[in-house]
Each structure stands twice: as structure tokens, then as C-alpha cells.
Amino acid sequence: MAKHREIIKHGCLLLALLLLLTGLLLLFYGLPKASAETVSMGYETRLFDRSYVHTIDIIIEDWDGFLATAMDEVYTHCTLVIDGESFPHVGLRTKGNNSLRLTNRYGLDRYSLKIEFDHYLNGSYYGLDKFSLDSSFQDNSYLKSWLAYDMMRYMGVPTPLCSYTWVSVNGEDWGLFLAIEEPEEAFAMRNFGRDYGQIYKPDYKSLNAENADVHLRYTDDNFESYTNIFENAKFGVSDSDKRRLIAALKTLSEGENLETAIDVDEVLRYFTVQVFVVNMDSYLGKTGHNYFLYEKDGVLSILPWDYNLAFATYSLGMPEPINDAELYVNYPINTPASGEIMRKRPLYHNLMKHNEYYEQYHEYFDMFIAEYFESGYFDSFVSDTVAMIAPYVEKDPTAFCSYEDFLLGADTITNFCLLRAQSVRGQLNGTIPSTISGQLEDKSGFIDASSVWLPNMGEIADLKD
User: Fold this and answer.
1) Are 86 and 79 within 8 A, CB to CB?
2) How do beta strands 172-181 and 85-95 pair?
């Protein structure tokens, strides 16, 4: 009995010590932070199963009237039949900027579409509130967005889901489109959990304006200085939301303690892919847009969007000579734009001023090239994709190009990526200059890209045929 009491005594002392230690830890370090738990959504394994081509039939009362008013981008009622399952009272409208305008100008009807399940009723598709159907405008390969999003996903960047879809209208074939998850509430819950933050799509009202907010530059503390951000919020924006974002931009502009305001790891992974795909119509291009901005607890990250002009096919952003494949295959990874543009893109420029982040960026590039390309993953992924979609492209009644042009486009984008990977490897190893100034002085180590003709991936001239 005495021995039993001794055991209890020692046990109580041990428990008291543990409680004291726990109290001291909480005193000095605070309560442990709860990790954000992502939400598994039913649509992930349905419409966005990437292993096959899905079917969508748009049942709409006045399709001709819808096409006639396409430039208005106004929602209209339809019923959507996805893989045989019907969803009534869905909102449908056209989408796009230049793609919408030019498709209309050349008398074509193959518009990209936006589909909203909760536009009229509080509905969804297994949790999905909104997605788009991309028409592959200026993309004869049908692969630009598909590949760019897969690269982002591979590098661990929160990325919209996508899948190929055979679209019909009132039972008549319309063509092969790419279904893309829109970054709204379902996307936020899937990637960031139920306690998600704010999502913005910064965009300019006029390309000729300064657009400092779109470039994520801090100017002052006035809300009105950031209307290109706040007016493009996906959820309701409070004054506290605005103050947090402006404070983060101020920290970014100062260039110190960046991890308090920027998800540095995510941003570096994003720029690894963004620089690889040479997307001139992007944050690192002259326009400085075509991305989503995520903010939670005063910390910013950047999310991928809009790649139909990636892989060096945005002619408005190209220096002379236009369509010089060798220039873009070897495009420098350390200065992916002119100094004038870089100084106005603090999310890239101010991070790269820090040796730690600069080295981490190179480490991610090394990993990306080794695992995505040199391992053979890319070759298999492209060949499997082309085999899957080729029969649908061949019978696509509204395609922007011929089947032969598709095969040529797919071959061209594949060669571009493989040669680009070789060049990046050379830049990492120091055999090819990795800056614009260095490449102006020495092109002797450049990867030969004479076999690549960039317009084969798709250009505006194709719309005239």
C-alpha cells in the first residue's frame, strides 16, 4: 500500500511538472496556430478528372440570340448537362478581352464561355460555383493553358483545375474546349480551407495609365489609389481588408522583412513556372496583369491565370525581331524583362534583391527542370494528352485551325519547351548568360531554336483563313 501511495505521489509530481512546463511554453510562445485544412470538393473527381474528355451539352432557348449579343457579356439562362447529368437554371455568358473582340471581328462564333451555377439560384455542381470553357483562341496546339497549369500544379502552386470537354449546344456538336475552375469561393475552400482570405484579380481600366496598383506598387495609404485591385475583389471587401493589403504592399516596397507580408515560398514557385513559359502578357510583361492575388492575415501570394498567349506568342510584348524563337528559348531567367519593367514589378524585383530568395529561386528552377523535363515526365504527359484529344480536334466543327495545324502546333510547343529546358539548365550551370545584359554580350552558348517557328502555335492571322 505504501508503495502504491509512492507511485501516486511521483505521478502527481510529474503531472504538475508537465503542466508547469506547458504553461511556460504558452507564456513564451503563445498558443499553437491551427493549420488551414483544405476542403475536398466533389467536382474534383468528376468534371475535373483529367484522364478523359468530358461532355457538356448546353441547353439554351435562343442560341442564335445569345451569339448575336455576345459582345454584351450578359448572363442568360441555360441548362447544363455534364457527363449525362442535368443542372438547370445555370448562368451562361461569353468571356474574354481581345479574344472576344477579335473572334467577333472576324465573324466567328467560337467564344470562350463563363458558367455560373449560383447566378440565378443558390446552386452548385458538387460544390463548384463557377468555371469557364476556354476556346483555345490563338492556340493551335490546344495545349498552352493545359501545360502551364500542369507546370504550376507540379510546382505546388494553388492552381485552377482543368479538363478537356466536348461541348454541344442543344445536342449539336460545338467543339473541344478546356474547362477551367474559376478562382472564387469553391477554389478558395479547396486550396485554403473554410477560413479562406480574400482573392483579387487586379486589372487596369486603361493600358495607358500608370496602373501602379496592378503592378503591386505601394503609393500611399489612400484606398482610392488601389481601385484596380479593390474593385476586382471576388468577395466583399471591408476597410480592414484594404488596410491589410496596403500594409503588405508597403512592406513589399520597402524590401525588408518580406516574409511578414509575402508568402515567399509560393511566390518563388510561381515565378519559376511563369518565367519558364515566357508569358509576356502577364505580371512580368508590359501589361503587368493576368494573375490573381490572394491575401490572408496580411500575407500576399500570386495565383496563375490566362496562358493562351504564353510560350512567347504575345507579339505585342516582343522586342524586335518578332518571333525570334532562339531569343525566347534562351530568354534569361534572372532578368525576364527590361530594367524599366522590373523596377516596377516589386513582387519579383524586390525578392530577387535578397541572396536567400535568389538562391531558392534557382533551386526551384533546378528541381523543376530535373523532375518535370529531364525525368521524361513532360514527354509522356504531352504524348498522352495529344493521343487523348486528337480524335476530338479532328472532328471539331468550330476549330480555329485545321487538324494538320493542330498536330504542327502540338509538335512546336513540345519542341519549344524541351529546348527551353535545355537553355535553363545551361543558365543554371553558367554556360549561358542568365541576364539580358549578359546575353547581349555573349550568345555563343545559346540553344539552337531554328527548328521552331512560333506562329505555328497559333496567331491572329489564323482567324482570317
Assistant:
1) yes
2) unpaired
